[in-house]
Specification:
This protein is of the alpha/beta class. It folds into two domains: about 150 residues, Rossmann fold (3-Layer(aba) Sandwich); about 60 residues, Helicase, Ruva Protein, domain 3 (Orthogonal Bundle). Helices cover about 45% and strands about 10% of the residues. The chain has a five-stranded parallel β-sheet with strand order 2-3-4-1-5, sandwiched between helices. The longest helix is centred in the last third of the chain and has 18 residues.
């Protein structure tokens, strides 16, 4: 059986525990946040785009976890078939399916399902839909008419505040020098920062050491 037709039952993907709305760096994204969090009360389609690490995956996982809906990472499965049973479908990295005709046909079915039943579809990508090459002109037309938002990357101040809050949640403190050092090393990709914080926390507990810049450099082999 073809792998594209074999997987009709929607999969549930694990959500990162700390990808919550409280930890989402809102900054200039207040309109975007309100848009994707609105209650399901009629057809709505939105396209959110931006660079890697801007918070796209975090946003969709937070919405799925706290408000509801199916979080669907397009890079991990070949088609969206089966997810029409959800009121809100949140597709991460939808660009992985654009240009693939069978995948786009499944997207078209899902889009029409949302339209007919008055439900919600939100997708993220690294580019706006006008800059992608679709296999199906009809799908291109529909998705290019969606509400389109460029997600604004967080400021260093916002990223630092979230870092300190997450560190406090884990039971340790980050002073300004450590926050500044981590931001210089990773940029403002919250996923990378969370992974680093977990590594630093485990090492700190094991060594019974305070988290300082020299200790962080030692842990990260810098």
């Amino acid at each position: 059986m073809d792998r594209r037709t074999a997987r009709q039952v929607p999969l549930a993907f694990k959500l990162r525990e700390r990808f919550t709305l409280d930890h989402f760096l809102v900054g200039e994204n207040a309109e975007l946040l309100a848009s994707v969090c609105q209650p399901v009360g009629g057809f709505y389609c939105a396209w959110v785009w931006g660079r890697r690490g801007a918070g796209k995956s975090h946003l969709l996982q937070a919405v799925s976890h706290e408000i509801g809906g199916a979080f669907v990472p397009a890079t991990e499965i070949p088609t969206v078939d089966g997810y029409e049973v959800f009121d809100r479908v949140l597709i991460d990295d939808i660009h992985a399916w654009i240009g693939d005709q069978p995948a786009e046909e499944a997207l078209m079915r899902l889009y029409n399902n949302r339209l007919d039943r008055g439900l919600v579809l939100v997708a993220t990508a690294r580019k706006p839909p006008t800059r992608l090459c679709f296999a199906l002109p009809d799908l291109a037309s529909r998705l290019r008419s969606a509400a389109c938002f460029e997600i604004a990357p967080p400021s260093d101040e916002d990223a630092g505040a979230v870092l300190r809050r997450i560190a406090q949640d884990r039971g340790f403190e980050l002073d300004a020098s450590v926050v500044s050092f981590l931001l210089r090393r990773t940029g403002r990709d919250l996923s990378d920062l969370l992974n680093l914080l977990e590594t630093i926390d485990v090492a700190s507990l094991s060594a019974q050491r305070r988290v300082t810049v020299p200790f962080v450099k030692q842990v990260l082999n810098l």
